[in-house]
Amino acid sequence: MFFASDNWAGAHPKVAAALSAHNTGYAAAYGDSDLDKAVYERFSEIFEREVAIFFVATGTAANSLSLTAYNKPGGITFCHRESHIVEDECGAPEYFTGGSRLRPVDGALGRIDPSALEQGIERFAGEVVHAGRPMAISITQSTEAGTIYGLDDIEAISKIASRYGLPLQMDGARFANALASLETTPAEMTWKRGIDILSFGGTKNGCWCAEAIVLFDLDRAKELTFLRKRAAQLFSKSRFIAAQFDAYFKDGLWMETAHHANAMAARLAAAIEDDENSKLAWLPQANEVFAILDRKRAERLLASGAAFYDWHMPHGFDGHIGENEGLYRFVTSFATTEKDIDRFAEQLRA
Amino acid sequence: MFFASDNWAGAHPKVAAALSAHNTGYAAAYGDSDLDKAVYERFSEIFEREVAIFFVATGTAANSLSLTAYNKPGGITFCHRESHIVEDECGAPEYFTGGSRLRPVDGALGRIDPSALEQGIERFAGEVVHAGRPMAISITQSTEAGTIYGLDDIEAISKIASRYGLPLQMDGARFANALASLETTPAEMTWKRGIDILSFGGTKNGCWCAEAIVLFDLDRAKELTFLRKRAAQLFSKSRFIAAQFDAYFKDGLWMETAHHANAMAARLAAAIEDDENSKLAWLPQANEVFAILDRKRAERLLASGAAFYDWHMPHGFDGHIGENEGLYRFVTSFATTEKDIDRFAEQLRA
Amino acid sequence: MFFASDNWAGAHPKVAAALSAHNTGYAAAYGDSDLDKAVYERFSEIFEREVAIFFVATGTAANSLSLTAYNKPGGITFCHRESHIVEDECGAPEYFTGGSRLRPVDGALGRIDPSALEQGIERFAGEVVHAGRPMAISITQSTEAGTIYGLDDIEAISKIASRYGLPLQMDGARFANALASLETTPAEMTWKRGIDILSFGGTKNGCWCAEAIVLFDLDRAKELTFLRKRAAQLFSKSRFIAAQFDAYFKDGLWMETAHHANAMAARLAAAIEDDENSKLAWLPQANEVFAILDRKRAERLLASGAAFYDWHMPHGFDGHIGENEGLYRFVTSFATTEKDIDRFAEQLRA
Amino acid sequence: MFFASDNWAGAHPKVAAALSAHNTGYAAAYGDSDLDKAVYERFSEIFEREVAIFFVATGTAANSLSLTAYNKPGGITFCHRESHIVEDECGAPEYFTGGSRLRPVDGALGRIDPSALEQGIERFAGEVVHAGRPMAISITQSTEAGTIYGLDDIEAISKIASRYGLPLQMDGARFANALASLETTPAEMTWKRGIDILSFGGTKNGCWCAEAIVLFDLDRAKELTFLRKRAAQLFSKSRFIAAQFDAYFKDGLWMETAHHANAMAARLAAAIEDDENSKLAWLPQANEVFAILDRKRAERLLASGAAFYDWHMPHGFDGHIGENEGLYRFVTSFATTEKDIDRFAEQLRA
After folding, report:
1. Most exposed residue of A135, C111, C275, D91, measured as fewest CB within 10 angstroms of its CB?
2. Taking CB atoms and an 8 Å limit, are B99 and C230 in contact across chains?
3. Could you tell me if A309 lies within 8 Å of chain B, comparing CB atoms?
């Protein structure tokens, strides 16, 4: 019943096996091995076009370096008020860029509202030196609220980006879960909808540590090479990341694990809906479930070994939370089992 | 015959096995799992005192964050002219610290000359605002030239550090090789000789990716927690690093691999000395061998599958290199076999 | 009728005369001249305690360096949503601090609301590494909306600062106007109410270029010395700033000019109130007047040579602005004359 | 007898008069006044082509921002070992650029040796990510050793810059003295010889505070606008700088003061040569004289009211300094009088 986060799981057995398989032999360091190159190639196939790939250590690094690739003095990145880069990265995006600013944009349940975005940018569109100027837009897919931007939603954002000449970054720490939810292709969900640079997360979906920047805007590739090294994010034994991605992509493992995590979330959501004393805060679209539970019941569940987090009210939440109730987040992963869910459901009803 | 670098090897089977063993089950993320904590404890045992441990992604990160922990406006870090932080980190130390300066110090074969160090610091000791001011001293053990600071050498440097009130950092990317060479203890080679903060490298000595900052100056621990996260160096599934270190330390594996690498270097050195057309540039003390070979012979070796690097003349080298000769670096590792060496020796003689 | 800003005026004749008077002779550079030292001493007298003084080139520099003096990795500065550091400094505070964050706090008419501040800080009080942590509070006196924090208001903020162990910075670009308005002393309005560091502006109130950081927290003085030089804010012929301040303080010139500017604002406000087609947006408390005018009338005034700015609606404004009306800002200064005001009033009525 | 530095003088009476003259009236702030614009125009005339002008507070700011305009991750600026940016700016260039590196180049008496420069750059020309990469070249005219690059010398450096695609910056804190010495034009000494960006100093040559970046590479102008503001270097009452430059350029005042300062240096040099117990360390070419004096004599001179500095041995100095002798620097300025020199000469002989 570990629903604290998808990063509490270990690694998928196939990922672990791949690491072991690539254990021996010598290979060029710093991302130049044959395996690294094969994996870069694999990314290009998956995205149906040439992409430049940069392995990095963490999702925070992927996001921060992506923004740094588009850094400007006085630059402002527009992102959702509750995005990971705002709430969970200790100011890394600002630090990496030497002080650019994140400007929160409103929007219900983790998704930027396009008109709020436009208004936000418009204010700085004159590039008045005192005020600073727009530098990038960042969206998260799936969002921190477990919701999804539909393809049209992404397009609406990217049209605004185009109008103002801004790059569009996607934080895809849970990219696979979004893809599974939308039943679309990586290409459709990214560059075909105007995404310029993507943080592609494998860690939460079955890897130990496999994060990559996928750069569609190839003119920036050389700079990003230096940016990554300068940020101490260039692995020497890079093939240990490559090996994980190799297994991750093989036979569609990554989509399998994402579908599984999403299905487990749906099962959990159903269990919560079934319980007469509990309710969903909103409908989950990927692998995160937000529920309103009686506080005492929640405490009992935690005491009995379940792990999940108390959550803050997201912007745009219009439901009702009773005096004795709380909002809680549950995250499922490749490792979540039906048995986990069913046991939780049982405890919930108890 | 892969002597290009010790980071061309994969991971030791026991390290790989540990990763697989910890594959399943849930564990708190971000370094708070039981395994992480057990490994922190293990570090304290190994160093015979309480230490604070920070896993990071790369040696460059360990060095850069360590200096950042002692950052000062106008700060100057004194380090060897050919140290890794000067030559191989793309300016990461300067970037992480927001612009502090590295000031190269001379010294033969990779080791700082204490009197040159003292002279270097003395110039800034007045803390004149225009000139900047001393901030830290950094030494590398074993050095980039494959040499070792003896315990007295470290003490000589640390006395200077004390006199000027400066912290002393050790870049221990090849810490184990130095330890094996000196046949001393981690404590003796570090805090008992005045080291304040250590980059402890496991990657080059048998891990996939296992680098830790070992902080002896515990008052700085809280700050370093924020510094690491802000630098995007906090792993979510931190136990994948912990698992590697767990295996690394178990039954003295790390010293075994280091002794092996050093022994292979000695064997290689002997083979070179034996060859009438080749000679050692200087005596290797750890797992790096620098040799003077006939250029044509070197090319032939490379063509026949050997991997090693052409090297620049280090400061303080007083040997003679003939017109048709070159200086080359050979690095051995846990994975190097006697057979590798013997085959190389044979080719060399051919 | 130049009400665009108080920085559109030149310098007070007495300030200009002082510059000319100190024109000749030699004096130690970089702030060490006798005149510099006398002016530092004068600041201590004015503030009724020892203070450390740092001349800088701009108000933006004063604010940015002040925050840098309290910089922390992952640090967050709480300030009003419409403060100068947020809206008008091109990200300089973030740049100077290498990426710390400004977190806007709500509050009516330019003044931070204490309970909103408390709530804002409370969220980060746990110092969770992901979220970042509180680093400072900044208030502006007088505010960007021409309002004033009363002494009790400052105390209410500083009590919160104390509770959370945070330094309290005051942006005093219009310090003298606030002082004149409150009819209190510099000491009462600053350190006696818990201010740790102050941006003391002379430029807007009759100098050419005279900005100083007044540091009450003397332990930070040495660091600030390096911070200022590193930020390229240490003037060589520093006495040209000292000379201005010398004249500024002599015989209370600074309070005279501030009282005059405030009086002119009051006269302008009265004229606007008198006009049946115009109204004050809110009561001015210092030297800035915000008025609601018919747009066409405003355009006519601008066409006839008046200079003033269209303004955005400040947070907490609860007045009504008609469809054909706009909100405008008028700033008076030492140079504003009664004749200016009367001529404007006449044109307004026309 | 104040020869400590040319920044110990005040301002030329004509500069002071101009400040007073522009004292009254209103003018657009932040560099947009008519006077500002007229001065920008004047710069274009003086340089015989369109230039972009950025007033800043200090020479350190001019240099640091100039390098920031060409900033690159992993970037290395090649400059003389004893240049102001290396020795006297407290790391500001590194800070402004967020951590780029200055790489000292050797060369006799303050001038970069072209072949040492080439060798220095060549090492990084491969743009290997570990090593960092060339970003700019900086020269100082006149140099810190009071010497001058001839037009051919500048061209030799700029040819290297071109070959490697690097921008060439000139630190012209003493630009006018160099110009007076070479009897050439501003255009010939800068863009016609390949200079891309210039720190144009007026402060040391008769202004209070008048430093400008002269940008020949107009494509960078917009970025520099943001860089300057973000660095808190945009003056509000910018016309106080403009007024100084206005007087500075009027009727060739600036060349008059420079010629005077140089002539005073020559007179001082002659006096030293005349003295049998003293000698010039090398021939002065602008307004700085370096002499070898008996230490006791030097102390006596200082005691009798003369001001000058003990100096370090510059790179490439091949003269002899006796055991009881010291090397001293004397700087003359617009304010130095023949009487000063003659009095000093008399004391020297005494």
Report:
1. C275
2. yes
3. no
